[in-house]
Amino acid sequence: MPILDRQRRPVRCLSRRGLLAGLTAGTAVLAAGRTARAACALTARQIEGPFFPTVIEDHDWDLTYVSCSAGRAEGEVIEVTGQVRDARCRPVSGCVVEVWQANVHGRYDHPRDEPRGRPLDPNFQGYGRVTTGDDGAYRFVTIIPGSYPAMDDWIRPPHIHFKARAASHPALTTQMYFAGHRLNGKDLLLAPLSAEHRASLEVAFDTARTDGVRTGTFNLTLR
Ligand SMILES: [Fe+2]
């Protein structure tokens, strides 16, 4: 895979897939939101980090395709679903959920992320945005991101950045991690957290759809 600069990337087209965003989230999440009234643990907050996209073009729920490009993103495809809810487990509708992440090589499509041998993937969208409906549910299809060096002695474990914004609640910025990854216990942002806070950010991808795509549930509990 050649290294591609921003200037050499193919022109993207408007996506129609974004129109389907949030309409196909799992029914299990919906059922949980309607029946549970017990307190839901708040999702731990994390820093936004330096790589929020500077240019947003294609932004639908499927990060594994870029409009007008025939190929699919490199890496293992996964599905991330969840529900935005409040501390009483009531679904939060009208919440804008944004995700951004590195590609399979651990590279962000961001001018401040120097290549250092990590190529861009022209078929990876890198950012997605959906709005929750009445059930508070969201869904993204993406790939497991690669780890990357944050400093000489600090390798960030694979993670996906999240931002959830609703008019009715304070915004939540955080990061989702992959449960059991060997780098989680050494990460300077994740490892120091309490067990409860860490559990709110680590997601197991141990179930699979009929097509073999592993899925994980990452609920976002707003204050
Ligand atoms: Fe990051």
Element layout with pairings:
Elements: H1 27-35, E1 77-86, E2 96-100, E3 127-131, E4 137-143, E5 148-151, E6 154-156, E7 159-166, E8 169-178, H2 195-199, E9 202-203, E10 207-208, E11 214-217, E12 220-222
The chain binds fe (ii) ion (FE2).
Number of strands: 12
Pattern of helices and strands: HEEEEEEEEHEEEE
CATH architecture: Sandwich
User: For this structure, what is the CATH class?
Assistant: Mainly Beta
CATH superfamily: Aromatic compound dioxygenase
- Helix residue percentage: under 10%
* Class from secondary-structure proportions: mainly beta
Bound molecules: fe (ii) ion
Helices, by number, come to 2
Terminal CA distance reads 43 Å
Query: Main sheet, how many strands, which sense, barrel?
Result: 5 strands, mixed
Quaternary structure: single chain
Beta percentage is 25-35%
Overall average pLDDT: 87
Give start-end ranges of low-pLDDT stretches: 1-36
CATH fold-level label: Protocatechuate 3,4-Dioxygenase, subunit A
Shape: globular
Radius of gyration from the alpha-carbon trace, in angstroms: 17 Å
What does this structure look like?
The chain is mainly beta. It has a single domain, classed as Protocatechuate 3,4-Dioxygenase, subunit A (Sandwich), CATH 2.60.130. Helices cover 6% and strands 28% of the residues. The strands form 3 sheets. Strands 1, 4, 10, 11 and 12 form a 5-stranded mixed sheet that branches. Strand 10 (207-208) and strand 11 form a beta hairpin. The longest helix is centred in the N-terminal third of the chain and has 9 residues, at 27-35. The radius of gyration is 17 Å and the shape is globular. Bound molecules: fe (ii) ion (FE2). The site of fe (ii) ion (FE2) has 5 residues, from strand 7. Fe (ii) ion binds at residues 49, 51, 156, 159, 161.
